[in-house]
Amino acid sequence: MDWPQPDPEAGRGSILFASGRGDFIEKYLEAYGHWHSRGWNVTSFDWRGQGDSRGDIIGGHLDSFDPLVDDLDALVSEWLGATSGPHILIGHSMGGHLVMRLLAERDPKIDAAILVAPMIGINGKPVPQPLSAKVAKFLSLLGLRRRKAWKDNERPTLPGASRQRLLTHCAERYEDELWWKGKEPGYALGPPSWGWLDSAFRSITRLTPDIIRRIRIPILILGTERDRLVSPEAIERAAQTLERAELLMFSDAAHELLREADPVRTQALTRIDAFLDEHAR
Residues with Cβ < 8 Å from 40, sequence gap 6 or more? Predict the structure, then answer.
């Protein structure tokens, strides 16, 4: 998806948005509209295996995250040559993880980046991440790589936490996602496979402190202390490791900060706008 400004000469620059696991372009139309109204050209895409990029890939499974890094690298290279700067990458959840890997491993000529609830660690509490990683690897080695890790939702329902409560406190925005999945049934990716989890844990181990320190551009990280999908502690550690990072942690918000109830969503977008005003002029 490319949403350019009507007058290219009057635009502020270009944003490329990388969404999370199981997401699709239409899910973030509201956020794209906000940035477009502020003068940005906006580009987004569906990761391979998701949205309208499914092809013959079995939903919810990946053998490695490396092809996704290659995909993002190729897309960013094309986007840099076709759009006006400054150039901003915004990544949510899995997209934030892959944006961080791209910045650390490939060093594209990006002016600034924003990571929203990035998957720098997986929150499997009460099971510690090292044990969860060993289980996923063991079951993958047993030949269960393509088997769904659980029966329904994005992860097993936790006590007092429905799928909606894990993602957003806004019932209307959650219903919007379900509406799109009703219109396009293939968008409903379902739970990940054991192989996807194994691949995710292996990819996370690539983001060592030494690797993260390679990233020198300004980065804004938004997270929530109550995130039940990604690790808030890993987000905070990464922010402390990065040379030019700014961090905003919400005390009472779910995973999808850009699709949260208006008090949280507005604060998140306001902080993003201020960061862009300072670092992308």
Answer: 5, 11, 12, 13, 14, 15, 88
